[in-house]
Amino acid sequence: MTPIDSSKMTKQPLPTIYPLIDTHTHFDAPIFEDDREILAQQAHKQGIHHLVLVGYLYQHFERMYETERLLNKLSLPTTVNIDRQNVSHFSSHVAVGLHPFYITQHTDNHLMAMAKRIADQRPLAIGEIGLDTFTEAMKTPDIFAKQVRFFKAQLDMAVTHQLPVMLHIRKAHAEALAILKAHDYDAHKLGGIAHSFSGGTQEAKAFVKLGFKLGVTGQITNPNAKKLRRAIQAAVDSYGVECLVIETDCPDMTPIMCQISEHNSSVTTQSSDQERGNAPVHNKNVPANLPWVLLSLSELLNVSPTSLAKQLWHNSCCALQTKWVYPL
Ligand SMILES: [Zn+2]
């Protein structure tokens, strides 16, 4: 293959379309209100076949289900493959979860209502859940203890309903790993994704060893994200490309070549710590940007995008416990 130098990548039309699964989005966020249908069509054109809407606040669960219904009703062009299967479809799926960053907003009623909702309307997964000590306030013992309690309670739900989890772990990898090791949740059996993985090499390997896939975002497109690139490379060296999935985490984590602002380095400082929809509108990340994550990863790992796309599809199905048929 010809190596692709992502530092020189510009947002040109893609020469090849690869079938992809966006394993983590907030495409239900208000920032997409005006152009969601157009963006879904663009995503579909760029090869996105499945998109997961991931929960963070109880009050928005209904909005996610509404978005799912809207997206799944869209009439998008379909194509058939040589086996006459209808392959070019686009569907969205919901994961529900109470995000650790918003811990002060969650109540025990939310937990109970979430448990009931899961029993009534089985989601694709539970997420995003985990631990986050990004700010000083979140390190205070009572706030952190509440994060731990909600994390464990949602892991319990995952076990009860045999659902995969989507982890959000930031600056609390050791604590999260200790909880996961002691818990009945078995990612080798139930799947699961360490979304927008941000730890170092040892943590990357530790999550994979527990059975989780590492979720790679647009951060990988930044040549300066050296720690992340090293961690992903090391996990692949030890466990193979089988340990990865990709995601946009839109509207955050815009790939560097898709950023319009002159301050391209902002990709590393973007975070999911704001209420969704506060990202600058001109620079919001969209599901159609996912192929750039694939291409950067392809270059980093020296694996052809064609075989990487197929492997990532398989990995996503494995992590989400689905059997979506690869379209090619
Ligand atoms: Zn997220």
Description:
This protein is α/β, with parallel strands linked by helices and 328 residues long. It has 10 helices and 8 strands. Strands 1-2-3-4-5-6-7-8 form an 8-stranded parallel beta sheet. The longest helix is centred in the middle third of the chain and has 21 residues. The radius of gyration is 18 Å and the shape is globular. About 3% of the residues have low confidence. Bound molecules: zinc ion (ZN). The site of zinc ion (ZN) has 6 residues, from loops.
What's this model, at a glance?
Strand 6, helix 7 and strand 7 (about 215) form a beta-alpha-beta unit. Mean pLDDT is about 90; it is low at about 265-275. By secondary structure, the chain is an alpha/beta fold.
CATH architecture: Alpha-Beta Barrel
CATH topology: TIM Barrel
**Overall domain count:** 1
The amount of beta strand, in percent, is 5-15%
Shape: globular
For the sheet with most strands, the description reads: 8 strands, parallel
Q: What is the β-strand count?
A: 8
Bound molecules: zinc ion
Query: Looking across the biggest beta sheet, what order are the strands in?
Result: 1-2-3-4-5-6-7-8
Name of the top-level CATH class: Alpha Beta
Query: What's the rounded overall pLDDT mean?
Result: 90
Number of helices in the DSSP assignment: 10
Beginning-to-end CA distance, first to last residue: 20 Å
